[in-house]
Amino acid sequence: MADLGWRTNQPKQNHGVSLWRHIYSISDDFFKSCQFKIGKGDKIRLWEDKWHVQGPLSVLFPKLYNLSTSKQISIKDAKLSGNDGVSWDLGLLHRRRFYDNEISELTSLLPMVENINVDPEVDDALIWLGDKRGIFSVKAAYSNYNQGNLQSVAFPNSKVWSHAWPHRVGFFLWQACLGRLPTMTNLHQRRTATTQSILCKLCNNSDESVDHLLLHCPAISSIWSYFCGGLIGTTVMLTSVRDFISNWRSHNHPAQGKQLWKRLPAAILWGVWKARNALTFSGKQFKVRDVIRDIKIDTFNWAKSSPCFRNVDTSTIIVGWENFFLNPH
Question: What is the pTM of this model?
């Protein structure tokens, strides 16, 4: 056995038991459909094992992984507890400064690591994603393998981890769908902001939960009205961000409108979150018109690589937004 006891070693000789060679030939497909469930953290490698639903940190953050001097470190050994709280040994204590692209990866990696919950009373486990109970069976594996579903994962799906927007936005959506964004309510529950009010920073009227801030806050209702119009009743007013993302549907727009519409839900949520943070940390006034403009810009920046935007610039998007959703007569 190898990899802290989870994987078997690859056969290295030409001879050997042929049955085992056939079994090992599909092992990569099998392990791609598995995920580690963290307990003590002593059997799971922080960088190289798939304990996060999106994949190993070594794959998600290749630049930081290449820099790390602790590539094989377990989650248990990487978690450091002291008088100043919990910190993580990522093996990144280098003398030189990080480059911008490394800082971008680090910004996405740190919240992911900080969300790790280690339970010293529970053993680490390897669960199989081909079964809702996480239990492997030959019958279910055979069925999924024949149907090409061996790697299927219920959530997050392509509507969260999409190439239609940057990775950091996908991670933000993942946190939002799970209700884990650092809103005032969540920070208070984690006891990291016990002296601050848990009221929403935008309306100062309701508790700042994830769903309130991003969907139901009256301060952003005009933003939803502007972008979604008559679709608010069926698209926006859902109980949670996860429902909202799951139920976003395409519409019969022209080519450019389809590209923008596909990215719009992520851009709206991301735009509101950025504006909230600018108010919270920089004291920048929350202005609906500025948020709407920034949402348009983000949506276009994510979509402009599509050939249908070849002769379109940002100013055209800002001024003529509605025109991109009108079918030509």
Answer: 0.56
